[in-house]
Amino acid sequence: MDFSEAEHGAFIEAFVEFFSGRLDDTRTVEELHLAAEHLTRGCQEHYRASVTRVSRIGGAVPPEKVDAFKDRALGLLNAPDSDAFLERASLLIRDFPSLKSWMAWWMRPSNASRLFESERVMDIEIWTSLPSTTNAEEAMHWKLYCACGRNHPFFEGLEALFKVTKYFQERHEAASSE
Fold first, then answer.
1. What is the 8-class DSSP label of residue 39?
2. Which residues of 1-29 are buried (b: 16+ CB within 10 A; e: fewer)?
3. Contact, 166 vs 160, CB < 8 A?
4. Per-residue pLDDT tens digits for 88-139
5. Where are the domains of the chain?
6. 76, 84 in Cβ contact below 8 A?
7. Taking a C-beta distance cutoff of 8 angstroms, is the pair 32, 15 a contact?
8. Who contacts 27 (Cβ-Cβ below 8 Å, separation ≥6)?
9. 110: helix, coil or strand?
10. Cα 17 to Cα 33: distance, rounded to the nearest angstrom
11. Mean pLDDT for the stretch of residues 19-26
12. Contact status, residue 42 vs residue 130, Cβ threshold 8 Å
C-alpha cells in the first residue's frame, strides 16, 4: 500500500466494515483492525524516491554528504533487528537534524512496520510473497488500465469497469466453488 495515511486508514476501515458484516467472522472490531494492519506492506521504491528527494535539499543534506546520507537511509531497509533500526535512524536524526520530522514520519510504527523488515508485523510468509517495489493499489490500477484503457467518456468508462468487475467476480466464484 502507498504511504498515504488517508488511503491506509480507508483500507483498514473498509476491511473492518467488510468482515464485520460477515456472519462467519466472529472477530471483534479491534481484532479486525489489527488483522488489517498486518496485511499492508509499503513500497520500497517510494521510500527510495523520498530519500533521493530529501538528499537534494542542500540545507538539510550538505552536498559532500549526499552519498553517505543515501547509503545510511537506504540501509534502514536492511537493519537486522528493531534495535539496530532505531539506532541507525537516531544517528541519521543526529547527523541531519533538519530531517528530524521526515525521519520521525518513517519511524512511526504504523509506517515503519509496512516498509522496514525489522519493524514488520505482517506474517513473514505473506511479507516475502508480496513485491517490495510496488504496492497492491498501483498493481491493480495497472491491471485496470490494461483491461479498460484510459481517458474514456464517463459512461464508456463505467461500462468498461463493470466488465472488469464482472470478470473478477466470475474468477472468484469459480475459485470458490473448487
1. T
2. bbbeeeebeebbeebbeebeeeeeeeeee
3. no
4. 999 999 999 999 999 999 999 988 998 999 999 999 998 888 777 766 666 6
5. 5-37, 44-129, 136-176
6. no
7. yes
8. 19, 35
9. helix
10. 10
11. 90
12. no
